[in-house]
Amino acid sequence: MGYIDNFNLVLALLVLATCFSFSPVLGMKYLGPNLYAGEVEVYVNNLIAPNILLYNHCKSKENDLGLQKVAYGHNQTWSFRVNFFATTLYWCNMYWFNDMSKSYVQGGFQIYKATRDYDKCDGNCVRNVKREGLCFFNPDQSDIPPKFMFAWPKKSIIGIN
Ligand SMILES: *[C@@H]1O[C@H](CO)[C@@H](O)[C@H](O)[C@H]1NC(C)=O
């Protein structure tokens, strides 16, 4: 083994050690960026009720998806790669008109957070938006039931445009 080989080995170990120390939450499963390069596809499904439109505005630090209208039974979908230090976070502000209470229901949620979700949906992340709140589901692990993640905030807003 020559000088360069040893140097590269030390460099590789340093990089690995840095990855671990920068992501204590991920524990031993996170082996650095090269082993974690998969695409994540998120689906935000409007399952609130027939004829109810979901207004959805998702963004990350790098990417603003704009305000989207999602019809009942449809979804908004997009894909991305988790960044080097697994700080990738998509936040979505959503609202819809509640035909029962005759008022808008509005909430903001962490729809994809790498440190929370990377081992739960390694590929497809389904977020079912319902009257009660948001359910997270991984269609590739259909033996695991959908998980209720967020209820809508109690306070609703009136007069949103
Ligand atoms: C997304 O919506 C379409 C209908 O618009 C549906 O067929 C499909 O199953 C949905 N995808 C997921 C992953 O929920």
Describe the fold and architecture.
With 161 residues, the chain is mostly beta strands. The chain has two domains: 1-37, no CATH class; 38-151, Sandwich (Immunoglobulin-like). 15% of the residues lie in helices and 40% in strands. The protein contains two helices and nine strands; from the N terminus they run αββββββαβββ. It has helices spanning 3-22, 114-117, and strands at residues 39-46, 54-59, 64-70, 75-81, 89-98, 103-113, 124-129, 133-137, 147-151. The protein has a five-stranded mixed β-sheet with strand order 4-1-7-8-9, with no helix packed on it. Strands 3-2-5-6 form a four-stranded antiparallel β-sheet. It is globular. The structure holds 2-acetamido-2-deoxy-beta-D-glucopyranose.
Which percent range describes the beta-strand content?
Answer: 35-45%
Characterize the biggest β-sheet.
5 strands, mixed
Secondary-structure arrangement, i.e. CATH architecture of the largest domain: Sandwich
| Domain tally | 2
> Which structural class should the secondary elements be placed in?
mainly beta
CATH topology of the largest domain: Immunoglobulin-like
Distance between the termini: 68 Å
- Assembly of the depicted chains: single chain
GO cellular component, one term: extracellular region
GO biological process, one term: rejection of self pollen
Subcellular location: Secreted
Protein name: S-protein homolog
